[in-house]
Design goal:
By secondary structure, the protein is mainly alpha-helical. Helices cover about 65% and strands about 0% of the residues. A hairpin with a 2-residue loop joins strand 1 and strand 2. It binds heme-as (HAS).
Length: about 550
């Protein structure tokens, strides 16, 4: 369908800005593996030091790229399925807030004033511009959510008897999770971190800050994931040449995410002493619950793919897999999505390892964790973002994709890279290799007393995998930016692939209404987080003064 010019231009900015910044993010991904493997033994290269680069890598790849994309893709799905346009002023204000906020945060990091990593845990302290910029990015991403609710209600009034499309449920569920979880981090940033960073308050409750961060932080990973799930359910079966096995399975999966994405953040704090055992046990059990919608998705999508392959004439128990359109340039999006799913099998299994309280003690704060999250956020999430960004770019500009062969092989190359990289990191983690450490200075520097030969193989695997991932990133940039500079050959449109469902499904009122799920969501969050926050406040004896990452002495002494 056609989209008005102002909305089209805003969507293109929301796709272009983060992919441009991603060049920096990916560059520092490569630098990470180089530092960590001991190939260089320095604190800084080209004016960017290790923690500054790691902050850029995390903030750009995990916060900026994902948030901009979720907003742009949310606009596309809401416009396409409700056949309505968002409010132009609101869309413009949202984009400006996100771009200016990102600029502020990036400037603080590049100036070396915010090397606090993407989790910005106090007592590491950043320049106020970093916190204010991050808050503006988040507030900018709230604006379209309220506009989409208006679009949905207006569509619903005209189609009272129709089931709400899976993509619309997915988008609204995702942004409801996002809105609720970001309230906690907004409190952390605006009430705790900004006054502390401006010097108005001297000390900070670290446990409370971490607890508020993780209230947001694990729901954040599902905010990254759900746009990919929308693509798996509504597009992948069609791209494979088949139909979706069940639309209601998708609806159930999204509603379970709505109630379980937030009340599990304490699984990042199993080692935090202030939080009681009861809270940890409850949230650990609920974490296993949040894997259920992913298992539902695994079976539904595998069945849809098998149907597609058999429709193409496949036979045999497993050989049907080879009938899928793996390397076809005309359905390159299939390659991005299927590779993401394959990586997620391993990402999901390692998540279940992390979720178990006793196993978590073995892997927490080791390189096993980045091994896990490159198979998740660096797997289904990142690949779906890359594939859909170039797809939307091509449609919204009416330009054909530049170097389509490169674009088709990117997801396969990336997947090979991530598998090697994550295998190295997870193996290293199991033998104690730490995360977030410039190992070239010590553990992987043969002239250091702390040199540890056991971590040579694992970090070399990380280096090899990281090099392949970097190459895949470069090929993608050639295709993406090359497309920007081509001549227009078609009318700009938004036309998303739509999977029909295999069976005629009747409308189930419970799966077509947000209210009951919102009530359950509120109740579970209250029951799990009231004791967690109370523990964080009451079991913390002393608040902490600020520190710089480079110095073990507090910046402010009492
Ligand atoms: Fe996680 C830490 C537990 C999912 C991201 N996670 C992280 C961190 C990140 C992250 C960034 O319980 C580090 C944060 C930090 O900086 O400290 N995670 C889980 C669990 C899941 C999970 C239980 N994580 C994700 C997703 C992420 C993500 C998704 C990003 C998008 N994670 C943890 C825990 C920690 C953690 C602890 C804290 C560790 C610590 O100590 O610090 C579950 O949601 C996973 C469920 C998924 C599945 C997989 C289903 C498989 C599918 C594929 C099917 C394939 C098909 C293809 C159909 C059960 C859907 C077939 C192929 C053909 C060819 C036909």
């Amino acid at each position: 369908m056609q989209v008005s010019r102002p909305i089209r231009n805003i969507l293109l900015i929301e796709l272009f800005v983060p992919i441009l910044l991603l060049t920096l993010g990916i560059y520092h991904g490569l630098m990470q593996v180089i530092y960590r493997s001991g190939v260089i033994q320095r604190t800084a290269v080209a004016g960017l030091d290790y923690y500054q680069g790691l902050t850029l890598h995390g903030v750009i790849n995990a916060i900026v790229l994902t948030t901009f994309f979720a907003v742009a893709f949310g606009h596309a799905t809401m416009i396409f399925y409700t056949k309505r346009e968002p409010n132009k002023t609101a869309t413009l204000v949202s984009m400006l807030l996100m771009v200016i906020g990102t600029g502020l945060a990036a400037a603080a990091i590049l100036a070396g004033k915010a090397s606090v990593l993407y989790t910005f845990y106090p007592p590491l302290k950043a320049h106020p511009a970093f916190y204010i910029g991050t808050a503006m990015l988040i507030i900018g991403s709230w604006v379209p959510y309220f506009d989409w609710i208006r679009m949905y209600l207006s569509w619903k009034r005209e189609h009272p008897q129709e089931s709400t499309p899976v993509a619309v449920i997915g988008t609204l569920v995702n942004f409801t999770i996002w809105f609720v979880c970001t309230l906690a981090v907004a409190y952390e940033v605006l009430v705790m971190l900004v006054p502390w960073s401006l010097g108005w308050t001297q000390e900070i409750n670290i446990m409370l800050a971490r607890t508020l961060f993780w209230f947001f932080g694990h729901a954040l990973v599902y905010f990254w994931l759900l746009p990919s799930y929308i693509m798996f359910y509504t597009m992948l079966p069609k791209l494979a040449g088949g139909k979706l096995y069940s639309g209601n399975a998708g609806r159930i999966a999204f509603f379970i995410f709505l109630i379980l994405s937030i009340p599990i953040g304490v699984h990042h704090q199993f080692g935090d002493p202030s939080i009681g055992r009861g809270v940890k046990l409850t949230q650990s059990i609920l974490t296993f619950g949040v894997a259920i919608p992913s298992f539902i998705t695994a079976f539904t999508i595998a069945a849809s793919l098998e149907y597609a392959a058999r429709k193409r004439g496949a036979t045999g128990l497993w050989s049907w897999i080879w009938k899928l359109p793996f390397f076809r340039k005309d359905v390159y999006l299939f390659g991005y999505l299927i590779n993401g799913l394959i990586l997620f099998i391993f990402g999901g299994l390692t998540g279940l390892v992390n979720a178990s309280y006793s196993l978590n003690n073995v892997v927490h704060n080791t390189s096993f964790i980045p091994g896990h999250f490159h198979l998740t956020v660096g797997g289904p999430v990142f690949l779906a973002i890359l594939g859909m960004s170039i797809y939307m770019l091509s449609q919204l500009t009416g330009k054909r994709i530049y170097a389509p062969v490169l674009n088709t092989i990117v997801p396969y190359l990336w997947t090979v890279g991530v598998l090697i990289f994550s295998a190295g990191l997870m193996y290293g983690g199991l033998i104690g290799e730490p995360r977030r450490t410039n190992m070239g200075l010590t553990y992987l520097n043969p002239s250091s007393e702390q040199f540890n030969p056991y971590w040579v193989v694992s970090s070399m695997l990380g280096l090899a995998g990281g090099g392949i991932m970097f190459t895949a990133g470069l090929l993608y940039f050639i295709s993406f930016f090359g497309t920007c500079f081509r001549k227009r050959t078609a009318e700009p449109v938004i036309d998303l692939p739509v999977s029909e469902t295999l069976h005629e499904e009747r409308r189930v009122p419970l799966l077509d209404s947000f209210k009951p799920w919102l009530v359950i969501m509120g109740l579970i969050i209250f029951l799990t987080y009231a004791p967690a926050i109370s523990d964080a406040i009451n079991n913390t004896n002393r608040k902490a003064p600020p520190y710089k990452p480079t110095d073990p002495v507090p910046v402010v002494r009492k």
